[in-house]
Specification:
By secondary structure, the protein is α+β, with helices and mostly antiparallel strands. The protein has one domain. The chain is built from eleven helices and twelve strands.
């Protein structure tokens, strides 16, 4: 839980919800270690433990000016976790704000283009990855490098953040985790319902995590939820087929508005991946190969969505097609049109 400017109270509620679950004596041999930034300059590393009656917080370390946006800073924090809680397997939940694969934008260029979704006021709040200004935001490659340098590979990474189920971000993380659980759209500020999914998290019950998230929001005051599970061990196979498709076909610009959008940007940055390829690939046999591989990579069982998604910038948007993950290949948005070509995903598939 790095510093995220306006989500601190929501993080506290997330922790209280998780503590409620732990009080049901669900941990077994699992341990839950929390890195929590209470301000831009202060953070604490502590464990959520069950003492037989209650969930308690055992504090291990306090940080001044923690460098959670740098490779070395992330590595240092993870090394502390390894020291405190040596284990055979690790998993990670990242609670923050999120902008998918988009690189951190320097302050001087922020006002040169359309607002980011978090800059809209007077509307229900959603999450993204980092704080409200670049110095508190983290690039996806930085996170991947920090995990690698700590000598870890996660069993799963769950992003409690907006827009993180995007193939460009997944491609950058494919070597540091077996699975990614994330939303391709904005996540309401309340975040994941840890009082419901806490037990599923500690038991690696991926269906329970996705279903718990979906079930909570479908009847909520803000009934908006989209989620998918990505098997990172299948991503290279997916990229190989995608390269073959891109070598044979060029997307027709007149079809752009027909592809399912999953964001609040104008022009669109995050398109539904499956819908995009269905309109790009005109070879039925090749499309069938893609769809078979896509199912292995982003299984339908874990793809769940409410009838609409929500964006702070546009409000409610209907979902007609949903594949659990987005792609930015066809985007003509100024934030993406050049930056997308610099991603490892784009370079591997074009």
């Amino acid at each position: 839980m790095p510093w995220s400017t306006n989500l601190t109270s929501h993080f506290e509620q997330n922790l209280k919800n998780f503590e409620t679950t732990i009080e049901n004596n669900i941990l077994g041999n699992n341990r839950v270690i929390v890195f929590f930034s209470s301000s831009p300059t202060e953070a604490t590393l502590f464990e959520l433990k069950y003492d037989g009656n209650n969930c308690i917080r055992e504090i291990f370390k306090s940080y001044q000016n923690p460098a959670f946006t740098t490779t070395n800073g992330i590595t240092s924090i993870l090394n502390d976790v390894k020291t405190i809680a040596p284990a055979n397997r690790y998993a990670m939940v990242v609670s923050s704000h999120g902008t998918g694969w988009l690189p951190v934008t320097p302050v001087k260029t922020l006002r040169a283009v359309e607002k980011f979704h978090w800059e809209y006021e007077g509307v229900p709040l959603t999450r993204f990855f980092g704080g409200l200004s670049p110095e508190y935001q983290t690039n996806i490659k930085t996170l991947a490098e920090g995990i690698t340098n700590a000598g870890l590979k996660m069993e799963f990474i769950l992003f409690d953040d907006c827009y993180m189920s995007t193939i460009e971000a997944v491609y950058d993380l494919k070597e540091v985790t077996n699975y990614i659980i994330a939303s391709p759209t904005e996540v309401m500020a309340y975040g994941f319902p840890y009082h419901i999914i806490g037990e599923h998290l500690v038991n690696n019950n991926y269906y329970g995590i996705c279903k718990g998230f979906y079930d909570y929001y479908k009847n909520d005051q803000y009934p908006y939820a989209t989620i998918g599970l990505i098997n990172c061990r299948e991503v290279d196979h997916l990229s190989a087929i995608m390269r073959e498709i891109n070598q044979r076909f060029t997307f027709a610009p007149e079809l752009l508005n027909s592809v399912q959008r999953l964001d609040g940007y104008n022009p669109v940055i995050f398109f539904d991946y499956g819908d995009y390829v269905s309109k790009l690939c005109a070879d039925k046999n090749l499309l069938a190969r893609f769809e078979a591989q896509f199912e292995r990579t982003v299984p339908k069982l874990y793809r769940m969505h409410t009838p609409s998604y929500y964006s702070m910038s546009t409000g409610e948007v209907r979902i007609d097609t949903f594949s659990g993950i987005t792609i930015s290949d066809p985007s003509i948005h100024v934030k993406a049109i050049t930056a997308k070509t610099e991603t490892a995903w784009y370079q591997a598939t074009h």
